[in-house]
């Protein structure tokens, strides 16, 4: 009944229908019937039985309410849902029937109190964007990377994650991974499988994150890397081989390699230092030979033609400084309800950018 009362908020989705024959014409008519339902900001404590056919909804916005749960039966009937936005509620869990949403592309559950995502989310094979910022997530589903092959944006900042599942490395379509403001102890070793990753933000894990895997240097599509405010003392030499890297943020780490005086000179100076260190490792004497693990990574870098152990050509001073910047901090958008904002310290309320933005 509530849906009927909110008819001004129910709009036909803009879609291209029609076609050259009767079957395509029928399909066009069917698509035109899909609707966008906006029930955001209505102080809803629960959802009444709808009078609207749930199979006709392509986008459902329930954000900024007081919902504590979403009925299993309701979710199971949203068979044509493409976008589900439930951010800023009081949800402690998502219904298991979310696995029925085989057409779902965008899921926004930010600003709730969710500790675990249901394993059935693996069935959302069309999912491209997952925003679970500002929750209480302790871990992600173990098989998330094995099933969600189309995922492009994974944003899980401001949670309590201790690690990312090993299967995360199998998200070959992933372009953005935002895991800042967690309790990460380490990253998966085989990150080189993330062939599409352009932005990696693992900043502000503070005293928990102390090192990076060598495989970071095999993220050949990486443009932005933010590891600021951790406890990292040494950058992997393989970072020197990130040819597309434009921004590297390392502020707030007790770095010893490269030393501070090199860091202050900019991105090019840092890469040059790491090149020399890698060259030194690969040509070290037998009495000081690198570990087997390090040898394997140098071998991979040579194989992919990102490292030749030689010197690099000097660039202008302008190029040296370009790309190595401190982020321009600004307040996070209202992803979390005002009632939760007080639990975060001022440091946690600032962010370089809002990475979860619909294209």
- Which regions are unreliable across 5 or more consecutive residues at pLDDT < 50? 1-20, 24-31, 285-291, 309-359
Radius of gyration: 24 Å
Shape: elongated
Q: Count the beta strands.
A: 13
User: Strand order of the main beta sheet, please?
Assistant: 1-2-3-4-5-6-7-8-9-10-11
Average pLDDT level: 80
Keywords: Leucine-rich repeat, Repeat
Protein name: Plant intracellular Ras-group-related LRR protein
InterPro entries: Leu-rich_rpt, Leu-rich_rpt_typical-subtyp, LRR-SigEffector_domain, LRR_dom_sf
Question: Can you characterise this structure?
Answer:
It comes from Arachis hypogaea. This is Plant intracellular Ras-group-related LRR protein. Keywords: Leucine-rich repeat, Repeat. InterPro entries: Leu-rich_rpt (IPR001611), Leu-rich_rpt_typical-subtyp (IPR003591), LRR-SigEffector_domain (IPR050715), LRR_dom_sf (IPR032675). This protein has 359 residues and is of the alpha/beta class. Among the domains are: 104 residues, Ribonuclease Inhibitor (Leucine-rich repeat, LRR (right-handed beta-alpha superhelix), Alpha-Beta Horseshoe); 121 residues, Leucine-rich repeat, LRR (right-handed beta-alpha superhelix) (Alpha-Beta Horseshoe). Helix content is 18%, strand content 11%. An 11-stranded mixed beta sheet has the order 1-2-3-4-5-6-7-8-9-10-11, with no helix packed on it. The longest helix is centred in the C-terminal third of the chain and has 16 residues. The chain is elongated, with a radius of gyration of 24 Å.
Which features characterize this protein?
11% strand; Leucine-rich repeat, LRR (right-handed beta-alpha superhelix); 13 strands; two-stranded antiparallel sheet; 359 residues; disordered N terminus; 9 helices; alpha/beta; eleven-stranded mixed β-sheet
């Amino acid at each position: 009944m509530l849906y009927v009362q909110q008819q001004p908020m129910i709009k036909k989705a803009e879609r291209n229908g029609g076609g050259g024959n009767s079957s395509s014409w029928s399909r066009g008519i069917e698509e035109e019937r899909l609707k966008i339902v906006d029930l955001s900001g209505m102080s809803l404590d629960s959802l009444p039985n709808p009078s609207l056919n749930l199979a006709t909804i392509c986008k459902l916005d329930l954000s900024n309410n007081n919902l504590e749960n979403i009925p299993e039966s309701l979710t199971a009937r949203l068979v044509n849902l493409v976008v589900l936005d439930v951010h800023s509620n009081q949800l402690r869990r998502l219904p298991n029937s979310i696995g029925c949403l085989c057409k779902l592309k965008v899921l926004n559950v930010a600003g709730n109190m969710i500790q675990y995502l249901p394993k059935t989310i693996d069935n959302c094979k069309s999912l491209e964007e997952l925003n679970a910022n500002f929750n209480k997530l302790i871990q992600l589903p173990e098989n998330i990377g094995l099933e969600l092959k189309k995922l492009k944006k994974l944003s899980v900042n401001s949670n309590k994650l201790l690690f990312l599942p090993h299967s995360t490395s199998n998200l070959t379509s992933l372009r953005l991974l935002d895991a800042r403001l967690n309790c990460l102890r380490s990253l998966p070793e085989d990150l080189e499988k993330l062939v599409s990753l352009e932005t990696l933000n693992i900043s502000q894990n503070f005293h928990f994150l102390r090192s990076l895997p060598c495989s970071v240097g095999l993220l050949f599509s990486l443009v932005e890397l933010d590891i600021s405010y951790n406890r990292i003392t040494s950058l992997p030499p393989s970072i020197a081989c990130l040819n597309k890297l434009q921004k590297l943020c390392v502020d707030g780490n007790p770095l010893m390699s490269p030393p501070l005086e090199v860091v202050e000179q900019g991105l090019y100076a840092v890469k040059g230092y790491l090149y020399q260190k890698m060259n030194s490792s690969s040509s070290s004497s037998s009495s000081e030979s690198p570990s087997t693990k390090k040898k394997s990574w140098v071998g991979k870098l040579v194989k992919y033609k990102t490292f030749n152990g030689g010197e690099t050509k000097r660039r202008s001073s302008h190029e040296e400084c370009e790309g190595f910047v401190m982020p321009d901090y600004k307040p996070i958008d209202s992803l979390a309800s005002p009632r939760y904002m007080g639990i975060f310290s001022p440091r946690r309320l600032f962010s370089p950018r809002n990475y979860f933005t619909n294209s």
